[in-house]
Design a protein that fits this description.
The structure is a homodimer. Chain A is mainly beta. Chain A has helices spanning 55-63, 76-81, 92-96, 156-159; strands at 2-6, 14-15, 17-22, 28-33, 36-40, 45-50, 65-70, 100-102, 109-111, 116-127, 132-144, 163-165, 170-180. In chain A, a hairpin with a 5-residue loop joins strand 3 (17-22) and strand 4. The longest helix of chain A has 9 residues, at 55-63. Chains A and B meet through strand 1, strand 2, strand 5, strand 6 and helix 2 of A and strand 1, strand 2, strand 5, strand 6 and helix 2 of B. Strand 1 of chain A pairs antiparallel with strand 11 (132-144) of chain B.
């Protein structure tokens, strides 16, 4: 039996990401974002929604660029912190002690300690309501080499990203392996045949 | 030391969702989607990206509605299956054995066995490239009562959603609790003070 919660902005799993930008004085800033996801495979694009009230929002509009930095579980406290305080009155690279580097491809900084970075140029901007959705074209992905598997794919168990729960407001890690995608064409056979 | 992977559409965690629609003959269809996320808090909106080649794409354009059905780990095989076969030649509600119900609020069906359903009306459509991004306004969220915590928030450990890994193509469950959001205003204090 299902119960109705009414209109709500909740979805599971939701990512915990840190968006990095330069302000008008070229000072690096970072903030947490959870309203985000991949939105196109070719060209590769991700969308990130921010409130116009945030310092990062104006920075993205100014430079038309941002990075999406994926924290590992080891940095969940820093990822939470940069979603609470504002870059208007806090130099978050100082309060977190994280290392800022300059992207060579887009006009945005990134966090060296985080294991995965998406370097993005703004492709489209959608004013949706309380949030503005920035669609960024991913011009490059950088990762720490030790998060790659033997096929050079990102191994989520080595990356150890953070899952955010809207509503309850808690962070979780990644759990057990359930199985491989594209192996269940015929459910009666119990799966396990890999697709060509 | 970071290594560059070039432009890629990867992000972690990425959700595993099943989008339900009616076709032109009012037959229910469902397909897996991972390029999705919340994109606005007020009004509540989610975005879901599908390729124009999919059967569901035309169904959404026709009815201007869809549901986002969140599978639990128990249905990872069914969630994988409906991303492999097409609704053009397969009645997926039959091959999966899942129960279809009709939304009372939008022109779309949903899956009774899945613990969380977002009923969505199309708000905007963005042609981005290989994928079309549908921004849906969430007019209602339905959940199984047993996934709610004592504050009537969704408890992700009871919902047990599925994490998809692009690239490696594997599914994972949700792992251990890391901590509570908005408790790390002052990192030097070690956190744990809740924000007002």
């Amino acid at each position: 039996m299902k119960t109705s919660l009414g209109p709500q902005s909740i979805l599971y799993p939701t990512p915990t990401l840190v968006i990095c930008t330069y302000d008008p004085e070229d000072r690096p800033n970072m903030m947490t974002a959870a309203w985000a996801g991949v939105c196109c495979s070719s060209p590769p694009m991700v969308s990130v929604s921010l409130r116009p009230a945030t310092y990062s929002h104006a920075n993205i509009k100014l430079h038309k660029a941002f990075t999406v930095c994926v924290p590992s579980q080891d940095h969940w406290r820093e990822a939470d912190h940069v979603g609470i305080v504002s870059g208007r009155n806090t130099l978050k690279f100082q309060t977190t002690g994280l290392t800022v580097k300059r992207s060579e491809l887009v006009e945005a900084p990134y966090i060296e300690e985080f294991p995965m970075i998406l370097e993005c140029k703004v492709h489209e901007v959608h004013e949706l309501g309380l949030h503005t959705q920035f669609v960024g074209e991913v011009v490059n992905v950088m990762v720490d080499e030790d998060v790659l598997d033997e096929n050079d794919n990102v191994d989520i168990e080595r990356l150890r990203p953070i899952i955010f729960s809207p509503g309850a407001g808690v962070y979780h890690g990644v759990g057990e392996l359930l199985g491989k995608a594209r192996t269940n064409r015929n459910l009666e056979k119990g799966g396990d045949e890999e697709e060509e």
